[in-house]
Design goal:
Blueprint (H helix, E strand, L loop, with lengths): L1 H19 L7 E5 L2 E4 H17 L4 E4 L3 E2 L9 E9 L1 H5 L6 E8 L2 E9 L4 E6 L3 E4 L2 E2 L12 E4 L6 H17 L2 E3 L4 H10 L4 E4 L4 H13 L3 E3 L7 H4 L2 E4 L1 H11 L4
Helix pairs in contact: 1-2, 5-6
């Protein structure tokens, strides 16, 4: 299954990379205020679904652009959770920080995860119980034990004034307590970077399952912890996420619990 998901991700990457050479031709639609979708998102998503559905015709899908397939429900044994371009705004501006995220949920448990960065050709993979890898090399979360030395990442729900106010308040707290906070615009890549130690922690509110699913498995399989702002584990559909190495995670929860 992981090999099939990699094949699907690379098929989508071919669509994305072709389009990246001529961004002026990309057709853009505004789904909500400051929330965009392009014909490239849709074509990449279709490429992923075609590969996966051909290999696994009975599997269900939950995808950012096309939504849930008719057979996607709580009792579905296998559901693929797909974000064809996590970081669409970055892609539209030629800012090289976006990725393809594919995860497999088996009876509600994420068992496979793929995050592919088509710009850097970085392939992150994880299988539940078998570890996380970057370009076939085993990865682990960072070893820092103090948030004061940690490089963190975050994001916020664009177009929501109330969310922006809360985001700025959280940013002030975390920037003061940490070594630095980055907002690069792709939650899935941020989670992958936590898994491989490029970042020491990540936090964000208002995310969707396709933003979180693959990356959360990466982090846990790399020895980290993922949870809600309260520290609880119901983050996938609630959408409020903290991810970090165990000691940094505990300190982040202590600071962010008031925002839970």
């Amino acid at each position: 299954m992981i090999n099939t998901a990699v094949k699907a991700a690379r098929r989508a990457a071919a669509v994305i990379n072709r389009a990246s050479f001529d961004l002026d031709r990309v057709i853009v639609t505004e789904k909500n205020h400051k929330d965009f979708v392009t014909d490239v998102d849709q074509a990449a998503e279709q490429a992923i679904i075609e590969v996966l559905s051909k290999a696994y015709p009975d599997h269900a899908f939950l995808a950012e652009e096309s939504g849930a397939s008719a057979n996607a429900h709580d009792e579905a044994e296998y559901t693929w959770i797909i974000d064809p371009i996590d970081g669409t705004t970055n892609f539209l501006h030629g800012f090289p920080q976006y990725c393809i995220s594919i995860a497999l949920s088996q009876r509600g448990v994420i068992t496979q995860g793929i995050i592919y960065d088509p710009v850097r050709n970085d392939l992150f993979t994880a299988t539940k119980g078998a570890g996380a890898y970057l370009n076939e090399k085993r990865i682990r979360v960072g070893k820092l034990d103090r948030i004061s030395n940690a490089l963190l990442a975050t994001g916020y729900q664009a177009g929501n004034p109330k969310a922006l106010i809360e985001y700025l308040e959280m940013y002030g707290i975390m920037a003061e307590r940490s070594h630095g906070v980055r907002r690069a615009g792709s939650a899935a890549l941020d989670l992958a970077y936590v898994a491989c130690g490029r970042l020491d922690g990540f936090y964000e509110k208002g995310l969707k399952p396709w933003d979180i699913a693959a990356g959360s498995l990466m982090v846990t399989e790399a020895g980290g912890i993922v949870g809600e702002f309260s520290g609880e584990s119901d983050y996938l559909y609630k959408g409020d996420v903290i991810a970090a190495s165990p000691k940094v995670f505990a300190q982040m929860v202590g600071l962010l619990t008031p925002f839970a």
